[in-house]
Amino acid sequence: MLEVHVPQVLHLQYGMYVWPCAVVLAQYLWFHRRSLPGKAILEIGAGVSLPGILAAKCGATVILSDNSELPHSLEICQQSCQMNNLPQVHVLGLTWGHVSPDLLALPPQDVILASDVFFEPEDFEDILTTVYFLMEKNPKVQLWSTYQVRSADWSLEALLYKWDMKCVHIPLESFDADQEDIAESALPGRHTIEMLIISFAKGSPDLPP
């Protein structure tokens, strides 16, 4: 058993509390925990950072990031690190779609975590711009992402094609996430959540064992 502590704050900003997708992505990480030690992992739009904190506790080298223009979100990332005694985890301000000095200085990553970042359709392109930049640093990097289906009109496929990316849908039952309660959390509930692994179209993603 592994304990993870995260702060939650009643706040208008999305990143101040745990969303259902974070629990599902954390479950995927836990299911594949033996593949995590030594991996370089960046969580984008981290907020309370449940998936990133879990990955760090499983032995990955983790960087947590959120919008550089939202200091409260970065503070909540820091609090999550402190609550879990993870001083080695760095917190970074990254604004999607902006090529900042911090983004340029990032070392190549093995995995990018994104829990419910595909929330506002107007952000989708900026998110993929940032992911594409990171994929150019390491063409084998994968984006492990969960998102909640909120509208049948939203689709990532056309944008992924534009950015020369592809995705593999991971069935929730393949990592014991096809239930209303996961790890004593009732958050996933009856929400429709998708688990995706996104990579460059030119390469075949090596899925975790």
The count of DSSP E runs of length 2 or more, i.e. the number of strands, is 7
User: How many helices?
Assistant: 6
Low-confidence stretches: none
Widest sheet: strand order? 3-2-1-4-5-7-6
Describe the structure.
- This protein has helices at residues 20-31, 50-57, 71-83, 101-105, 124-137, 157-162; strands at residues 40-44, 61-66, 90-93, 111-115, 142-148, 165-169, 193-200.
- It has 209 residues and is of the alpha/beta class.
- Strands 3-2-1-4-5-7-6 form a seven-stranded mixed beta sheet.
- Helix 2 (50-57) links the parallel strand 1 (40-44) and strand 2.
- The protein is globular.
Please give a quick description of this structure:
Helices cover 28% and strands 19% of the residues. It has helices at residues 20-31, 50-57, 71-83, 101-105, 124-137, 157-162; strands spanning 40-44, 61-66, 90-93, 111-115, 142-148, 165-169, 193-200.
Note the main attributes of this structure.
209 residues, alpha/beta, 6 helices, globular
SSE topology sketch:
Blueprint: H1 20-31, E1 40-44, H2 50-57, E2 61-66, H3 71-83, E3 90-93, H4 101-105, E4 111-115, H5 124-137, E5 142-148, H6 157-162, E6 165-169, E7 193-200
Helix pairs in contact: 1-2
